[in-house]
Amino acid sequence: MGFAPDDTERLARARADLRMGVPVVVAGMGVMLAAETLQPARLTLLHGMGAAVAITDWRAQTLKVAAYDGDVARIALPADADARWVTALANPADDLRSPMKGPLRAQRGGDADLARAAVTLCKSARLLPAAVIAPLDDTASFAAEHGLTVVDAAAVRTTEMSPLHGIVSARLPMSVSEAGRLHVFRPDDGGEEHYAVEIGQPDRSKPVLARLHSACFTGDLLGSLKCDCGPQLRGALAQMGTEGHGVLLYLNQEGRGIGLANKMRAYALQDQGFDTVEANHRLGFHDDERDFRIGAAILKQMGFGAVRLLTNNPAKIARMEASGVSVVERVPLKVGENAHNHAYLATKAAKSGHLL
After folding, report:
1. Is the pLDDT of residue 8 over 70?
2. From the centroid of its chain, how far is CA 331?
3. Is 116 one of the catalytic residues?
4. 261 pairs with which residues across the strands?
5. Is residue 291 annotated as part of the catalytic site, yes or no?
6. What's the rounded Cα separation, in Å, for the pair 254 and 139?
7. Catalytic choice (74, 290, 293, 319)
8. Is the pTM of this model over 0.85?
9. What backbone torsions phi and psi does residue 331 show, to the nearest 5 degrees?
10. Residue pLDDT, tens place only, 245-272
11. Banded pLDDT at 334 (limits 50, 70, 90)
């Protein structure tokens, strides 16, 4: 390896650039700007370059525009479109107040890979999944002239999970058990770290009581009544403390993998009358954007090959099994229902298959 960044390191740079509103070049294809952080002056430069706004099929469905490319749609950028027009396409906050966004002209034919790469990059940066894109004949020269990060389209689209490495572990006495230990795992791709809370000294040759818990700032820390996350976290740890052993994986995949800001956008949409799944779709996301392979990778690194999984979500069981971790028992975790989250839990059961 030389001094130059590799594909993984360039992708990490690209995510940071997009969050700051800096353009990113996709090699051999074109240039992109995240819609959420779009700066008017840079949008003006894209006019006349055949620019379009790339959105997901879910967002296109909300906007009543055809997604000719299947998983994404490319909406031609009108000559008079400003940053507010782009924001209105990307952000559903004002959809009910201003439902008419058009006329919108969806592009069809040609290569949509730039649009796919742009949407994928925005998602990985925890931004709204929408971008302004423009094709380029010579991406290398354009990037060099403007000092922009260049990423490889194949590297953007890869579904391989970034390798995780244990960084440190230390003893952590807790209220549920004085025999606690915290392990920190860091991915190679510059993403967020994940944690494993080990209770006692579980026998690696036997199925361990385990929970894959996705970070929930509002529920875990603030005691939000809109979800059951906080009670599930505390309930799982308490059960492990009672049994004397267990592993709780605390995965930094806030809001089913869309990030805290987008989760708050979803909450605002729920206040408009949409359920949790509908809110995610209106934002342009799938029902669930989490990657449960992370949990399986951590468990295997810790020496566990079989678990008794504390969960109400069959998808977690399927992903563990597919990733080489045997789930010998599903242990229900039904706690925390209240008047504020009753409808939310009912939606999870009806639309996401949770066993509640």
Report:
1. yes
2. 26
3. no
4. none
5. no
6. 34
7. 290
8. yes
9. -105, 115
10. 999 999 999 999 999 999 999 999 999 9
11. confident
